[in-house]
Amino acid sequence: MSYRIARGEQGVLTFEPYKSMLLPLWRFRTPSIARASSAALWARFVDFDAHDDFVGMDMARKFVQMGMTRAKRYANHKGGRKYGVDGKELEKSTTHGDRGEKEEASAVFREVWERCRGHEGYQRRKKVFQEEQKGWDKEVKKEEGKVGRVKEEELDV
Predict the structure, then answer these.
(1) How far is C-alpha 129 from the chain's CA centre?
(2) Which residues 6+ apart lie within 8 Å of 23 measured at CB?
(3) At residue 157, does pLDDT exceed 60?
(4) pTM for the complete prediction?
(5) Tens digit of pLDDT for each residue in 55-85?
C-alpha cells in the first residue's frame, strides 16, 4: 500500500494515475472558472465514490483543497508569491486589484472542500482505509523484523 492520506494536500501532484486525471480540471483564476473547476472535481469525487475508490476520492478532495489554498494565496499576495528570493515570507497585500476575485474563488473551493470532508462515504472509507493501513504497516514492520533476524543469523555462521 503506497498511498498515504498525508496532511492537507501533500502528495497531490505525485500519485498517478489520479494526478493526470484531476490536474486538467483544476483552475482557480476567476470565481466562474473556480465554480466550473470545483464542480468538475466534485463530479469526479462522486464518481470515485460510486466506484468505491477511496484513493480517488481523497485525491479529488486534495485538488479541491489546493484550489482553495492557492486562490487564497493569490488573494493575500499579489502574483501569488508568498516568499521572497531570500526565503522570508512577504507581507500580505490588501490593495491589489484582483484580491476580491481570488477571495471569492477560494470561497467557492472551500464550500466544495467542506462537502468532500463531510461526505458520509468519504468518512466511512477513510476510517476503513486508515485501519487497513495500520494493519499493512504492522505486517511490513513484522516482515522487516524477520529480515533483520535472518541477516543477524547469517553473520553468526
Answers:
(1) 16
(2) 13, 63
(3) no
(4) 0.83
(5) 999 999 999 999 999 999 888 888 788 888 8
DSSP one-letter string for the chain: ------STTTTTTTSTTHHHHHGGG---SSHHHHHHHHHHHHHHHHHHHHTT-HHHHHHHHHHHHHHHHHHHHHHHSGGG--B-TTSPBPPPPS--TTHHHHHHHHHHHHHHHHHHHH-HHHHHHHHHHHHHHHHHHHHHHHHHHHHHHHHHHHHH-
Q: Give CA separation, 129 vs 5, 52, 55, 59, 109, in Å.
A: 9, 11, 9, 14, 25
The residue among 111, 33, 44 whose CA lies nearest residue 74 is 33
In the structure grid, which three cell numbers stand for residue 95, read together?
A: 490593495
Residue that has been written with the C-alpha cell 458520509 in this structure: 120
Q: Grid coordinates in use for 63?
A: 485538488
SS (HEC) of 42-66 = HHHHHHHHHCCCHHHHHHHHHHHHH
- Are 60 and 90 in contact by the 8 Å Cβ rule? The answer is no
24 prior amide bond cis, ω within 30: no
